[in-house]
Amino acid sequence: MPTAKPIRAETLAAMVRSDPTPTSLRIIDVRDDDFEGGHIHTATNVPSSELTGLLGDLVDELKGVEKVVFHCALSQVRGPKAARLYLEAKDLLSEGKKEHDLQGHATDTTESKEEGKEQEVYVLVGGFYEWQKRYGQEKDLTEEWEPEMWKNYQG
After folding, report:
1. What is the 3-state secondary structure (H, E, C) of the chain?
2. At how many degrees (to 10) do helices 9-18 and 127-135 cross?
3. Is 103 a catalytic residue?
4. pLDDT for res 116
5. Which residues pair with 40 in a beta bridge?
6. Which partner from 34, 125, 131, 135 sits 20 to 30 angstroms from 11, CA to CA?
């Protein structure tokens, strides 16, 4: 089974800047109540407390997206776990779409990979905490940033 790869803030920032309304990149922020205080431009908040019930919908919604980045505040627990659960659900749903032909042989009826590309799944190194330290003031990269909320953040 594929695993999520780490991605550094600098790399993600370049990706966001290269396409301010990305269709090939989705950022999934799994912070819960700590989502307040700012978020990465274009990020979708899917609270970790609700993720399990939303995995099937998320897999469908992200079908065809080339790169998916998960993160939480520090990307030590919730972000990596969300990426793992997403990959597992994606794998299970893909397996569930296999059908059997008349002779009982499994036939894969899943959609072919978009132009032969496998979806890449990442976890943001350092999470939003590290992101906001570097890019909090940059309005093209960070939305609704409240520096006071992060001033004494301990994680």
Report:
1. CCCCEEECHHHHHHHHHHCCCCCCEEEEECCCHHHCCCEECCCEECCHHHHHHHHHHHHHHCCCCCEEEEECCCCCCHHHHHHHHHHHHHHHHHHHCEEECCCCCEEECCCCCHHHCCCEEEEECCHHHHHHHHHCCCCCCEECCCHHHHCCCCC
2. 60
3. no
4. 53
5. 142
6. 34
Q: For 116, phi and psi rounded to 5 degrees?
A: 75, 5
Report the predicted TM-score, pTM, of the whole model to 2 decimal places.
0.85
CA distance 108 to 142: 41
Residue among 30, 72, 82, 141 flagged as catalytic: 72
Q: Using an 8 Å Cβ cutoff, are 119 and 66 in contact? A: yes
Q: How far apart are CA 29 and CA 64, in angstroms?
A: 19
Q: What is the largest CA-CA distance in the chain?
A: 65
Contact 132, 145 (CB under 8 A): yes
Nearest Cα neighbor of 64 from 146, 105, 8, 119 is 119
Structure tokens at 88: 């597992």
